[in-house]
Design brief:
Helix 8 links the parallel strand 7 and strand 8. Helix 5 crosses helix 6. This protein starts with a helix and ends in a 23-residue tail after the last helix. It contains twelve helices and ten strands. An eight-stranded parallel beta sheet has the order 8-7-6-5-4-3-10-9. It is an alpha/beta fold and 387 residues long. It is elongated, with a radius of gyration of 31 Å.
């Protein structure tokens, strides 16, 4: 084989040639490269045809979201009865909106307190400083001025290390809020495991048949007393576990042994704030909802998020010029914490800032509509509304 044939043989499977420091001196040069060029051209044509065929296949294949058919569903819980306008939680038969729209939109409840709270971050305190002395007025402002469709009344003043209010005083505060607004209530204690069951029992009696959510029952306090108060006076119970799906399942079982049903329990798997362990909440809440849809009857209840935990993040309230003004950062931190939980399946959100409540409520209102056909609300100017 002559040298030219050897060269052409080497070029058969070569896409390109790079020649460095090349010099050629000649008087006459005749190259016959047609056979090799023809083979290269044929390879190019074949590759182009294969690419075009692939493009045709891509054009004909329509995207279909991965919709699953689940054997279980989430129980429906009614909050509000008697003189309250009822709201409904749960009822989902799927995890994601593209699988199936929700029967009820997520609910946002406004946090109010039974005593003045000077420790609240300024962006929140400035909205309520004029009504902090009276929980009824605080609740009324949340409903009338900021459109709250639920109110959470935290009986912080009953704490032994706070004001040590009596059960009778706690009941009076509940009666004041009931008279001030006609929306359903979530009733929380001070966080003291010894006193909270007594306080929640007195509150349940004061709000008999108003179908409140007693917050909360957990394994570190007398959950039997809380459950009995709910059964006796027609209320629901918030079942609180700390990012542990097995603990949540156990607590739900215990509560149902005390006479509560799936329709009387709302779970709180604990919301860790954005940047402070939110990935743990994502994992537990998603697995809890999937377990319910797969048929686990001990976890087939709606879920709650203490979204106000976002305000415990220093990025939400700490003054730092490099981070931008807290008027923006605080609501953003609360909104994104809540939105993350909403996308994982949470049904009810306890929140603090009026703008956070408004924006998350608007987003939640789209969850009952068919996926990708919902008119998106105009929120382009929500930051300027803070100014």
């Amino acid at each position: 084989m002559d040298k030219m044939s050897q060269l052409l043989k080497l070029l058969e499977k070569t896409d390109y040639i790079e020649i460095n420091e090349f010099r050629m001196d000649f008087e006459e040069l005749e190259l016959q490269l047609m056979p090799a060029m023809q083979r290269v051209a044929q390879q190019v044509v074949s590759k182009q045809a294969a690419v075009q065929e692939s493009m045709k296949m891509m054009e004909t294949v329509e995207f279909a979201p991965p919709i699953k058919d689940y054997p279980g569903e989430v129980a429906e819980v009614q909050l509000g009865a008697g003189t309250r306008k009822p709201v409904y939680l749960g009822g989902q038969q799927a995890l994601y909106r593209f699988e199936e729209s929700q029967p009820h939109e997520p609910v946002v409840t406004f946090d109010v307190f039974d005593i003045p709270m000077p420790g609240l971050p300024r962006p929140i305190r400035e909205h309520f400083s004029d009504v902090m002395e009276h929980p009824g007025e605080w609740a009324k402002k949340a409903v009338k001025d900021f459109g709250a469709n639920m109110v959470t009344i935290h009986l912080i003043g009953t704490g032994p290390k706070v004001m040590d209010k009596t059960p009778r005083q706690a009941a009076e505060d509940i009666e004041e809020v009931l008279q001030a607004v006609d929306v359903p209530l979530v009733v929380g204690g001070s966080g003291d495991p010894q006193k909270d069951p007594i306080i929640l029992e007195a509150a349940a009696m004061a709000a008999e048949d108003e179908r409140c959510l007693l917050a909360s029952a957990n394994l570190d306090l007398d959950y039997k007393r809380v459950a009995k108060a709910a059964v006796d006076y027609n209320h629901a119970v918030l079942s609180w576990a700390i990012t542990d799906i097995n603990m949540q399942k156990t607590l739900n079982k215990y509560l149902m042994k005390e006479g509560l049903t799936q329709n009387d329990i709302v779970m709180d798997p604990t919301t860790c704030a954005l940047g402070y362990g939110i990935e743990f909440s994502i994992d537990v809440i998603t697995r809890t909802r999937l377990a319910a849809l797969k048929g686990d009857k001990d976890l087939q209840m709606p879920m709650s998020s203490g979204t106000t935990n976002a305000w415990g993040s220093r990025e939400a309230w700490m003054k730092n010029d490099a981070w931008g003004p807290t008027d923006y950062r605080g609501p953003i931190w609360e909104i994104f914490t809540g939105l993350t939980m909403m996308l994982c399946g949470v049904d009810i959100f306890m929140m603090l800032h009026p703008l956070s409540v408004q924006l998350l409520s608007e987003i939640g209102s789209t969850f009952t509509k068919e996926y990708l056909t919902t008119d998106v609300p105009d929120i382009s100017n929500w930051i300027t509304e803070l100014e």
